[in-house]
Give the backbone structure.
Amino acid sequence: MTGVELITGTGRLMGSNEVEVISKEGEKRLLRGKNILIGTGSRPAIDDIPGLRESNPMTHIEALELDIVPEHLVIIGCGYVGLEFAQAMQRFGSKVTMIDHGERVLKKEDPDVSAAIGELLQDEGVEVFLKTFVKEVLGESGKTVTIQIEKNGQSETIQATHILTTTKRLPNTDGIGLEAAGVEITSDGYIQVNEHLQTNVPGIWAVGDVAGTPKFTHAAFNDFQLFVANVTGGNKSTKDRLIPYCLFIDPELARVGLNETEARSKGIKYRLFKMPIAIVLRSRATMEKRGFMKALVAKDSGKILGFLSFGASAGEVMAVVQMAMIAGLPYKAFVDAVITHPTMAEGIKFLFLSELTGSEVKQEIIN
Ligand SMILES: Cc1cc2nc3c(=O)[nH]c(=O)nc-3n(C[C@H](O)[C@H](O)[C@H](O)COP(=O)(O)OP(=O)(O)OC[C@H]3O[C@@H](n4cnc5c(N)ncnc54)[C@H](O)[C@@H]3O)c2cc1C
């Protein structure tokens, strides 16, 4: 027994230490507490594009409820959510078209990563329109939609059956009584918290998406762990924690720590190790040879600054490197370690062994 009481209803701050909960049946309850934790999450939002809202587009919520395979699905946004749905729907049998105004998919990743993911989707038959703007939408998603796009100054029209929009998520801060309690928000609308997850109001804390934490379940869960530690007298901070992520396409894309773009923009010197996944013997056994691994290593200390795997079991492989990073191990620890053959994690050893062996492995020193 945890001693937790679960009350189902809509909560709202009534002051700095009071929350009112209204149940579905309209019953009200007033709760008082020394500490209040806000974890209301975020929700999808629809861009202000003429006709888009009226076309009743799907967000990920409706897309996850679909009980048919759309004949032709247009996805607006080439970020994580869009890409996962695109590959899944294409494999279910939809014709899928993706549209994004950026120059590449996954724009926060390094250009070689974006290119590899874009190629994967195109090889599977997904049509990807980049540097493309949706100008107007006519019709109704689920029936017929006509989407007017502009690419390189040229207008084009796409006829489809469904639209899924994945471009924006907004924090759930409306109507939860932040003003009544005097809780401040950031210019982007997230609850303002310090590195200990405290708001400006003593006793009110916020965690997860609504607090502007990177939008991952594991990050929200770690916020909660920090909150528990801090509310019971600890002094845990969100500063400098490693937050990994995994994009669940096939094969997976997983990253922890710095990528090249971030290292360069921060002026951090690094050694780059990059290797095709096909070098990993496990990938030859399973015939899952698509992708690559790369790692950034500090020039002076040899510590691992960042790791990315695009390949089978990438999420699991990344966790191995993440633990080495947390322990502050140099990359050579992998060279010396005996790692089970044939596993995908064995590839980390090959990646770092490359300075002794690999001609197929790229090594660069970035000054
Ligand atoms: C399509 C999609 C795929 C994703 N895939 C992954 C993934 O693979 N891995 C990953 O790590 N992350 C993934 N995420 C992100 C992840 O879901 C979120 O980052 C995570 O759920 C955030 O946790 P949270 O506790 O902050 O908010 P939530 O999980 O959104 O929980 C907030 C809860 O608060 C409730 N609530 C809101 N307002 C009130 C109120 N006034 N009163 C009472 N209750 C309220 C909501 O109903 C909800 O239950 C994905 C997100 C999307 C949209």
In short: The chain has three domains: 10-33+173-231, 45-167, 245-365. The chain has a mean pLDDT of 95.
